[in-house]
Amino acid sequence: MLTEAELLAKVPTGLYINGQWVEGSAKTPISVEDPATGKTLLTIANATAEDGMKALTAAADVQDSWAKTSPRERAEILRRTFEIVRDRAEEFAMLISLEMGKPLAEARGEVTYGNEFVRWFGEEAARIGGRFGSNPEGTGKMLITKRPVGPAFAITPWNFPLAMATRKIAPAIAAGCTMVVKPAELTPLTTLFFVKALEEAGLPAGVINVITTSTSSATSGPIIADPRLRKITFTGSTPVGVRLLQQAAENVLRTSMELGGNAPFLVFEDADIDAAVTGAMQAKMRNIGQACTAANRFIVHEAVADEFASKFASKMGELNLGRGIADGTTCGPVINKDAQDNMQRLVDLSVKEGADIVTGGSSLGSEGYFFKPTVLANVPEDASILKEEIFGPIAPIVRFKTEADAVRLANNTEYGLVSYAFTKDLARAMRLVDSLDTGMSGINTGLVSNAAAPFGGVKQSGMGREGGSEGIEEYLETRYVLIPNL
Ligand code: NAD
Q1: Ligand 1 centroid to 240 CA: how many Å?
Q2: Cβ contacts of residue 164 below 8 Å, gap of 6+?
Q3: Does residue 462's CB lie within 6 angstroms of at least one atom of ligand 1?
Q4: For the domain that residue 226 is a member of, what is the CATH number?
Q5: Percent helix, percent strand, percent coil in the chain, to nearest 5
Q6: Are residues 398 and 337 in the same domain?
Q7: Could you say which residues of the chain have pLDDT below 50?
Q8: Do residues 404 and 469 share a domain?
Q9: Could you tell me if 173 and 139 lie in one domain?
């Protein structure tokens, strides 16, 4: 196993444009920080708007030739990339843990999950289909084919540095689209390391281009406004997604938006409470609560609310906070000082509004950005914390009396990404699946993500799906041809 310094020495620090690693034109480089120590891990290139346009030009110039490569060739590049990432799984895991803070065991899970998109879409590349039939009048043949959308722009968040990138890059490659990728400035190293794997797997120059920048808006704006771009795919917060949709409207771009969440986690009186607590730990604490799928509101039947709160708090209290790569760490830091301050604000506000702290409730230590895993009980239905995405290790519990109440509370949000429900009653579970207003649901589980499943939300959680057979469709246009019978 490499040491931390040896690993960091292997990570490219430039922009990747047209198959070359190049310097950024901005004078000040980007410092990538370790959230567990607040210290700089690496400094990397900082792109300007001009660099962004060079990346788009590279992508646009090879779009036609890339679209003409055989699906098998694209699939083979993805398969080789999958194997390289699998061989370097420990290095990827360590890098994710260093820049994002999650415990090594979880980072290993992200490598497996993130790399699965590479394998899955490699397999999908050779299965892009179409339709053929007669028109209803019987006067002609209808041919429906698929072709790549064209050059795409991907913007990714900091919380899953590998998976959020592979979920976009792999289907684009499989479909025959070229792409400019802008990873989050807080955790760009894993994407750079991944692109190195693509390069080694034989990806032609210009197909995938990566720009890291501290001026997201100024660098992205001209790319989105350029008529050569045909698609934007974004994962991040709803306010930024709304802004990008407005910009995308100017050129009527195809858009895929994976935005914020405010997941309800329902526990009914007939649930297996221990299983619900295990599910709650997964749904709340994966990624230190910094996941779009994180359970944000625990809606628990009044008959089991105390038992659930006390068992959940005891598991939360057992977590061992530390640097992700350190032995024994089961919970890392939040991403930065702003996030840490925001956790304190939410706890203080909730207490003011009537909640009780069962465990946690404050920051930990003077180095890094740690916040104690926190359970809040007796949170009032109209508390502020239930209306925003917490994005950290705080679990507010609200009580309910009837199933109708639970559904009303669950749907009382502008978000609609995922919901979780724990009940042993199958009929109730099926009613919930129909009545919960979310793109995904987990029944008696706290984890739904899978590369083979369509991931995405409704309402202000976004549009489009990533993963599954649906994921590649986001990068394909449908074309219809009529051939009259002669
Ligand atoms: P963010 O919206 O602040 O940033 C996301 C990305 O957008 C980053 O790369 C950032 O640099 C870039 N960005 C910000 N402003 C921009 C602008 N004006 N123009 C162009 N790019 C801009 O989100 P974040 O803090 O990185 O991530 C957390 C958010 O992401 C949460 O809301 C979370 O729910 C969401 N998320 C959603 C999913 C999903 O699949 N639905 C998955 C992961 C994270």
Answers
A1: 7
A2: 156, 157, 235
A3: yes
A4: 3.40.605.10
A5: 40, 20, 35
A6: yes
A7: none
A8: no
A9: yes
215 in contact with ligand 1, CB cutoff 6 A: no
Residue 456 inside a domain? The answer is no
pLDDT at 428: 98
pLDDT for 342: 98
pLDDT one-digit tens code per residue, 448-478: 999 999 999 999 999 999 999 999 999 999 9
The pLDDT value recorded for residue 51 is 98
| DSSP structure string for 275-320 | HHHHHHHHHHHGGGG-STT-EEEEEEETTTHHHHHHHHHHHHHH--
Please give the full DSSP string across 169-196, using - where no structure is assigned: HHHHHHHT--EEEE--TTS-HHHHHHHH
Question: Ligand 1 centre and the CA of 236: distance in Å?
Answer: 2
**What pLDDT, on a 0 to 100 scale, did the predictor assign at position 486?**
86
pLDDT of residue 312: 98
Domain holding 18, by residue range, is: 4-259+461-481
Q: What is the pLDDT of residue 366?
A: 86
CATH number at 374 reads 3.40.309.10
Q: Are both 281 and 210 inside the same structural domain? A: no
Q: Give the pLDDT of residue 365.
A: 84
* Contact call for residues 153 and 456 (beta carbons, < 8 A): no
C-alpha 300 – ligand 1 centre gap (Å): 30
Chain centroid, CA 408 distance in Å: 27
Tally of domains in the chain: 2
In a domain, 455, yes or no: no
